[in-house]
Design brief:
The complex is a heterotrimer of chains A (781), B (283) and C (170).
Chain A lengths: L14 H5 L15 E7 L5 E7 L1 H4 L4 E6 L23 E2 L11 E2 L5 E7 L2 H9 L2 E6 L25 E9 L2 H5 L4 E9 L11 E7 L4 E6 L4 H12 L6 E4 L16 H13 L3 E4 L2 H7 L6 E9 L5 E13 L7 H9 L8 E10 L13 H19 L3 H8 L8 E6 L5 E4 L4 H12 L1 H14 L3 E13 L5 E7 L5 E5 L8 H13 L6 E5 L16 H28 L6 E4 L2 E4 L2 E7 H7 L15 E7 L5 E13 L6 E11 L6 H21 L30 E4 L22 H12 L9 E2 L3 H14 L1
Parallel strand pairs in A: 1-13, 9-30, 11-12, 15-16, 21-22, 28-29
Antiparallel strand pairs in A: 1-6, 2-5, 2-7, 3-6, 4-8, 8-16, 9-14, 10-11, 10-13, 14-15, 17-18, 19-27, 20-21, 20-26, 23-24, 24-25, 27-28
Helix pairs in contact in A: 5-6, 8-9, 9-10, 9-17, 13-14, 16-17
Chain B lengths: L6 E4 L3 H10 L4 E3 L5 H6 L7 E4 L9 E4 L2 E5 L4 H6 L5 H8 L4 H6 L2 H7 L5 H9 L2 E6 L2 E6 H4 E3 L2 E2 L6 E8 L4 E8 L6 E12 L2 E10 L6 E2 L1 H7 L6 H9 L1 H5 L11 H22 L2
Parallel strand pairs in B: 1-3, 2-3
Antiparallel strand pairs in B: 4-5, 5-10, 6-7, 6-10, 8-9, 11-12, 12-13, 13-14
Helix pairs in contact in B: 4-7, 9-10, 10-12
Chain C lengths: L5 E7 L2 E7 L5 H8 L18 E4 L2 E4 L12 E3 L12 H8 L9 H14 L5 H7 L10 H16 L1 H9 L2
Parallel strand pairs in C: 1-5
Antiparallel strand pairs in C: 1-2, 3-4, 3-5
Helix pairs in contact in C: 2-5, 5-6
The chains are: A alpha+beta (781), B alpha+beta (283), C alpha+beta (170).
């Protein structure tokens, strides 16, 4: 069949609804008789709760109910462990999960203590102000390097220390190879906390219909099906009694895959108890405490090389900040561990990490999900090695790239999906060459940079590579139906948060069924429409759900061909699907509309053949054996103002390989957006906690997100290396843009500031921080 | 982030405003509300009643009067930014306050009464030698901008008084405003307003103020002194700008985004930028 | 204190609505909750993000920092008021053409800010377009395409026939 839909930059199906203010988001759900919920949250990072007095609040007119942990009875229990640890030998794992409302003790600022239900949110907030909690403050664990000290305050007293996990993974034998290395370089790297800051705050509407014994829940989740399963179990309901809808979601980026948030557990319980619909919408201040965060790690890493720049091995010890609880297991730290080696053929690797509890908000994956930490360490080590060995930074990378003939390439350690870390496919040198051409590397280094430097301009270039494990299992499913109108409906279980699924998935279906993309209507994120699935995370939507949809569409195509072959008295191989019809090739007059064919297969009277299935519909599933490894190269030219240390991005290049591309326009949007967040993470965004665990910049006034005038256009190119792990040959792309930006900034800025002789070993940076770094050597001398 | 309950009264004239203020002790006056409403939402204030002066016609508009132009306290930043008969240092500063939504709603009077140390207009009015006209139940009085800003969020306004207008001299020479802004709030990390006159090739008058550095807009006397009698060129401007450290002393403040050392280090750059632009406009 | 509700007439998208409102209710909450005009979004609720931007008498403002009772006698335009029948506003059309958004949560605010710009500056340059949306955060990072959409819409407003023609030949 000719390719008409797949690979095309088709405009998005979902756009008109979103552009006219008609698309339904969770906060747009408005039900008659609905009550509103607010939370009283901890002002302390670490404290005992001595007592809670709610009597004044209860007396406020319009307050319907107030609950503390004690009021929850048996319903109060710590959340489930969402991701169990991987099968790594000698792994230590001490899971401690968040609770619906704090009982006796609070462990981070913003932890919910009391829930207030009222006729309006304004009244609920009035009431929250009249609740008095008697705290006994405790010293807080804030600095991850002090969390394991013998005298550190203990956050979970049953543990006697703050160790969440200890994991060692090995490839080869680093200790043995270390003695043979010509060069050893060791550095300490810091990567501080940030927040996803999706524009849409979290929110939940829960509506218990007592007459039908049916619970409906609208939730800003990336995983409606697991939410339904968990909530049904907690409430003692059948899964069929619970419908979870993740409607349009205003950005997810990871924290909305976390479950179960305390609010998710409480809202349906309250609705059942009060027999009224209830709504809670997080405010932005709550989002800074109550939505999960990411990033804090400290690495002590060593690279061993030969004189000609061949990497013999890497040794990395790191600490990972888990926050106050660790419901998401080890995903983020494992991603750091498993992404560090990147595109390089490294024979020996020793990686050991300790995840520690701190009195800070919970850490779960946020776009990149720990991968950027690993990439930062590796790329910085290569930069320093290149300088020390006198090798060009591109050359040292090129010498160590995994050659195409070595794929599938086994890194011999276990990835976050518990499968061995085996890169499925890759062809790295062409992407590197494209990036060099686009950034005009040789000309810049040899001509432009010296010329601009002579004019006093501090210009620098950065170029880094990365891989991203994407499209992991377990599985997704889809149901494709041709309606008698000829319209095609597609249902799948994952949620959608702006990735263009309505269009991309329609393209996958259109490709098989020969219908227009606009005639394919996707329903996603509604458990009433599709029962099975896991969710949108780990850059897996297009890979896993996309291939499930493809499989279901292929089955429908087979059904069409079978029946049309009978009706048209033609062999199946002589038929084609064009413009919403099936017809004999070369004979347009023989066409049957697909809707008509669907109607023939769903007769109201008469007999059908034994074994016949009604209509043109099929359901299928896809689960990959393991994740597909995407890769890329980013390059950047910056100019640093020597007086203010403000950094201006003059040019930004991204060359990306995510296998076969479904819609290049949407892919470019994903990469551009990822880069924007990466720039934020690298240069603007940092959650700053004081020694008491208080977050000092919990607003958009003080937490700096990139703005319209700070994000450059990313010039892009692509390399397509098919993944052998799925029929469509695709790899994920959602997180890639954000992953390599930290080391890219560090390298480019260091290059620009070459005369100052600084080494950038930390992220995020800022003009103020660069100012300090530049002063340090001067002060030291 | 929901305000506490309050009653709301709209004043249609100044006299009505004063009688409402007298009637409702503890009430807060609201105009654009861009400082007050956030603090209400954070429940940092619980005034019980708001008196809305936003529609009092006599507090609006820009009127030229000889060598001075009067800006009504309720004039928005957007209107000031687009005005033709005001010093360029003021219009360009107003055009860089916050973002369009803030400029379309925020008022000049509200801005200076709030006296945020990183705000732009206090710096500009101080440099331009503006006069702040205050009105209270007992009548009017005027305070030089330089004396109006007295501390961190503190001004010479007394209980029961309102800013009614600002008189800005329009014969002070060329003026300009330069700042490094916080990328989120667009408030000044360092802001400098300068006004200079050039006669016979040398600087005959100079007025310079900086903001974002200390608790309130500060006049840069040492910078000014270094300019007088000098031709204004790159070297003299740089030398004068370096004097800002004299003016600042040890009082520079730091915050999460910019340490005191950083601010002190970059202050001369923005002083020089403002002076250079002002000199080019001095004709 | 009594905090009595005040009878307030709000003119939204050319239609007058009479509401009894607590004075503390913001225009944003009145739009979203009392009038079910949920296209205007609440993100920071503190005037820092631009998602709630509406036009008040033609100028872009933050609905989260306006008291609804202070909006009587003002003409308020929201995202729901832009499209005429089935025909999208040129700005909305430009957002599709330029792929200027992903999740769509900041989009109403971006469009209203640009609408405010085009009301005052029919032929803006790139710098003016960018400055019009500096108060509008987009976490999906679609800023460069928002700039492109602003350009397309400005062209369309300035030269309706040519722009439409140019689109159809694209």
């Amino acid at each position: 069949m000719t390719t008409r839909y797949f690979g095309q930059p088709i405009k998005r199906n979902e756009d008109p609804r979103l552009l006219t203010g008609q698309a339904l988001f969770t906060d747009d759900v408005h039900l008659p008789n609905m009550l509103h919920v607010a939370f009283l949250r901890s002002d302390y990072a670490h404290a005992h709760i001595r007592s809670i007095n709610v009597s004044a609040a209860q007396a406020i007119p319009g307050v319907v109910a107030i609950y503390t942990a004690d009021d929850l009875g048996d319903y109060w229990r710590p959340g489930p462990l969402l991701v169990p640890p991987p099968p790594v030998k000698d792994l230590i794992f001490n899971p401690r999960m968040q609770v619906p409302l704090a009982k006796n003790k609070v462990r981070h600022v913003g932890e919910p203590i009391v829930v207030i239900v009222a006729e309006s949110r304004y009244i609920a907030e009035d009431a929250a102000q009249q609740i008095f909690v008697d705290f006994e403050p405790l010293p807080a664990v804030v600095d991850i390097e002090k969390a394991l000290a013998p005298d550190a305050p203990v956050i979970h007293p049953d543990l006697a220390h703050n160790l969440n996990a200890h994991v060692i993974q090995r490839k080869g034998d680093y200790a043995a190879i270390r003695d043979q290395a010509a060069v050893l370089i060791k550095r300490r790297f810091l990567y501080d906390r940030g927040t996803a800051a999706a524009m849409e705050n979290r929110g939940i509407v829960a509506d218990w219909d007592a007459k039908n014994e049916q619970l409906t829940m609208w939730d800003t989740t990336q995983a409606p099906i697991p939410i339904r399963n968990g909530i049904a179990a907690m409430l003692g309901l059948s899964e069929r009694q619970v419908r979870v809808v993740a409607p349009f979601i205003g950005g997810g980026f990871g924290p909305k895959i976390m479950m179960f948030y305390p609010e998710e557990v409480l809202l349906p319980w309250i609705s059942m108890r009060l027999n009224r619909p209830v709504k809670w919408i997080e405010d932005r201040s709550e989002n800074f405490y109550a939505t999960t965060q990411e990033r804090g790690q400290v690495h002590e890493a060593e690279i061993a090389l030969t004189r000609d720049g061949r990497v013999l091995g890497i040794h990395d010890l790191f600490l990972h900040d888990a926050g106050a609880y660790a419901p998401y297991g080890l995903t983020v730290a494992l991603n750091s561990q498993c992404t560090l080696l990147g595109q390089y053929d490294v024979p020996h690797y020793y990686s050991e990490f300790k995840a520690v509890f701190t009195n800070k908000p919970i850490v779960t994956p946020y776009r990149g999900a720990g991968r950027q930490h690993g990439v930062f360490v590796m790329e910085r080590l290569l930069d320093i090695a290149a300088k020390e060995l006198g090798i060009d930074r591109v050359e040292i990378r090129r010498r160590n790239l995994i050659p195409p003939e070595k794929f599938p390439y086994n890194n011999e350690i276990i990835y976050q999906d518990f499968a061995p870390l085996i890169y499925d496919s890759g062809n790295y040198a062409p992407a590197l060459d494209k990036a060099l051409a686009l950034i005009d590397y040789t000309n810049f280094i040899q001509t432009e940079q010296p010329r601009l430097r002579a004019e006093g301009k501090l210009v620098g270039l950065g170029l880094v590579t990365y891989v991203e494990g994407t499209g992991i299992g377990p599985y997704e499913g889809a149901k494709v139906t041709i309606e008698t109108s000829g319209r095609v409906s597609v249902a799948t279980g994952i949620g959608t948060q702006g990735q263009g699924h309505y269009t991309v998935f329609a393209q996958v279906v259109a490709e098989q069924l020969g219908v227009n993309v606009e005639n394919v209507r996707l329903v996603t994120g509604d458990t009433a429409e599709f029962y099975w699935g896991a969710g949108t995370f780990a850059s897996r939507g297009a890979v896993v759900a996309g291939n499930a949809i493809h499989a279901a569409a292929v089955k429908v195509r087979q059904k069409i061909l079978k029946r049309a072959s009978e009706d048209l008295e033609a062999a199946e191989e002589d038929l084609e699907l064009v413009d919403g019809t099936v017809r004999v090739k070369g004979s347009p007059s023989t066409a049957i509309k697909l809707g008509e064919l669907a109607a023939r297969l769903n007769p109201l009277r008469g007999a059908v053949k034994p074994g016949a299935e009604p209509g043109l519909e099929a359901t299928d599933y896809f689960g990959p054996e393991r994740g597909a490894t995407a890769s890329g190269v980013h390059a950047m030219i910056v100019e640093v103002d020597p007086e203010t240390m403000q950094v201006e991005i003059k040019k930004y290049i991204a060359v990306h390989d995510c296998g076969v591309v479904i819609n290049p326009m949407i892919l470019e949007g994903q990469i551009q957006g990822g880069v924007a967040q990466g720039i934020g993470n690298a240069f603007y965004e940092q959650l700053i906690f004081d020694e008491n665990g208080q977050l000092l910049n919990a607003s958009f006034m003080d937490y700096l997100l990139p703005t319209a005038d700070t994000v450059p256009r990313v010039e892009m190119d692509h390399v397509e290396t098919r993944s052998p792990l799925n029929p469509l040959g695709i790899k994920g792309a959602g997180e890639a843009g954000a992953i390599p930006v930290g080391p890219l900034f560090a390298q480019a800025v260091e290059d620009a500031l070459i005369g100052y002789n600084i080494e950038i070993l930390e992220i995020p940076l800022s003009p103020n921080r660069l100012f300090e770094l530049v002063l340090e050597p001067q002060q030291g001398s | 982030m929901y305000p506490p309950k309050f009653d709301y009264y709209r004043a249609n004239s100044l006299s009505e405003a004063f009688s409402l203020m007298q009637e409702h002790g503890g009430a807060k006056v609201i105009a654009g509300g861009h400082s007050l409403i956030p603090s209400l939402k954070l429940r940092l204030a619980d005034p019980g009643a708001l008196i809305d002066i936003g529609r009092i016609g006599e507090l609006k508009g820009i009127t030229a009067n000889g060598n001075s132009t009067r800006i009504g306290a309720l004039t928005t930043h957007a209107i000031v930014a687009a005005a033709k008969n005001l010093p360029q240092g003021l219009t360009e500063a107003a055009g860089w306050i916050g973002d369009p939504q803030v400029r379309n709603r925020g008022t000049v009077g509200g801005n200076i009464a709030h006296a945020d140390p990183a705000s732009d207009l206090p710096t500009v009015f101080t440099a331009l030698g503006a006069t702040i006209n205050l009105t209270g139940p007992g009548g009017e009085r005027s305070v030089a901008a330089q004396d109006f800003f007295t501390g961190l969020f503190e001004t010479a306004l007394q209980e029961g008084e309102l800013v009614s207008s600002i008189d800005v001299p329009t014969n002070g020479g060329g003026s300009a405003y330069a700042k490094l802004f916080n990328p989120a709030s667009r408030y000044a990390v360092v802001g400098c307003a300068a006004q200079v006159k050039v006669e016979n090739g040398v600087c005959s008058a100079a007025s310079v103020a900086v903001g974002g550095l200390t608790s309130h807009a500060t006049k840069a006397n040492a910078v000014e002194a270094a300019l007088l009698g000098k031709p204004l060129n790159e070297a003299t401007i740089a030398a004068a700008a370096a004097q800002i450290s004299q003016d600042l002393g040890d009082d520079v403040m730091g915050d999460l985004h910019a340490s005191a050392d950083y601010r002190r280090s970059i202050a001369p750059i923005y002083v020089a930028q403002a002076l250079t632009a002002a000199a080019s406009r001095a004709g | 204190m009594s905090s009595k509700r005040l009878l307030t007439t709000l003119a939204i998208n050319g239609i007058e609505h009479e509401l009894a409102l607590e004075p503390r209710r913001t225009l944003l909450d009145a739009l979203r909750h009392d009038l079910q005009l949920t296209g205007t979004k609440k993100v920071c609720d503190m005037g820092d993000c631009g998602a709630c931007t509406v036009l008040v008498d033609g100028r872009a403002m933050y609905a989260c920092l306006l008291l609804a009772v202070d909006c009587t006698d003002r003409q308020i335009t929201t995202i729901e008021g832009l499209a005429q029948a089935d025909e999208l506003d040129p700005l909305q059309q430009a957002f599709i053409e330029a792929d200027a958004f992903q999740c769509g949560f900041c989009t109403a605010g971006q469009i209203m800010s640009l609408k405010g710009l085009l009301n005052e500056t029919p032929a803006p340059n790139d710098d003016q377009i960018l400055r019009a949306v500096t108060g509008n955060l987009c976490r999906c990072g679609a800023y460069r395409n928002i700039l492109k959409a602003g350009r397309l819409a400005a062209d369309q407003v300035a030269h309706p026939e040519e722009a439409r023609h140019a689109d159809s030949t694209h």
